[in-house]
Predict the structure.
Amino acid sequence: MRPIPICALAVLVLGALSVPAARAQDDDYYISVPSFGAIMRVDALTGNATSFVAGMGVPFYGVWADDGNLYMPDRSLGVVFRVSPTGVASALTAGGFLQSPITAVLAPEGALIVSDLFLGTIVHVDAAGHQTLLADEASSGGLLANPGGLAMGPDGLVYVSNNENDTVVRLDPATGVVEPVSDGGGLLNDAGGIVVDNAGNAYVANYSGDSITRILLETGEARMFCDDPFMNSPNDVRLAPQGGLHVTMKNSALVHIDVRGQLTLLHQDQGFGAYDGVALKAYRTPCSGAFVPYGTGLAGTGGFVPRLGGLFAPCPGTTAAIEMEDIKGGAFGSLAWGLSPWAVPFKQGQLLVDISPPGGLIPLAFPGVGPGGGALTLDFTLPDTAALTGLSIHLQVLVADPGAPAGVAMSNGLQERIGG
């Protein structure tokens, strides 16, 4: 059941929902093709593929940088290449702590952080190609085990997917300290690419599991995000500019997975063999919006405290979602919304949103059965209007629940901070 057909969050503030064009939709995709030792450029509008760089070994997960160059790790040659905008490749760094580099991500100061699959190292590489070891298997106490995918999180930490033991860990690049995040709960299988959104979620490609797993970073809980039958050894995973994910696969495919985990084919050419990585210039400027939880809720039936969270990031022209769960199945309630947070005693809990105009209450029903079995996800596309940037909307779920102290169970608050 979906009682609101469009996003009330945008509609109630603006009065109407436009149909926006996706951000940077016409930007070309640069796809690593190991069978050809090449990087192919795929025109996002026509789907035509042309050679961008040739003569590589096994190019993997690269990244466009603000200096206009593409930085591409080559697993077989043991080199991180710097590729000019015209497709001229030169070695930035090789050897040292890097023997089989897999992923390069941008450090906050503009340098690179690179993972090495077989040496088990995470390495800082500056603009001159100088290497500094950040962590390895020994220094991490075994928490790094064939690190493959890397993602720079909004918290400034580097999130790492371990291909050998199917775990996710995080590294503080300032201190070299590595901490566990998730053991995958049996849902990671040859963990490959990883990406982190601005709502507290990581998404990991399962090369041998034909699926994408979502990790809730606060708790480490793993959930299946997409296991579409078309999935075939997913490899690289990136945040799509329009919301959702871009994923490369062994069946020569690049796909988009939307905020609900639904897959759409963007490009496929089986003449090229497996697709390893994908790089898009638009990845350099991801949506800066965020979903930020605050406050505490109030338990209802069975002791379950309703949880309100987000998926991906809200920006003009992008699609994101809010997720309501751990609610009494079949219950009715409301989504409280407003432009300011609050902390007002209410029904033995706290109302965490100022619902005075233009805010208010949106009636909802929560499908499901039993204590904690109710859940509802609402996805929405914000109008492509720059005036939204910087606006914050505050949310809280209120549920009619006889198991709550005064008949109303309450979620935490959630700030939807619209970025640019």
In short: The two ends are 32 Å apart (CA to CA). The chain is about 0% helix and 45% strand.
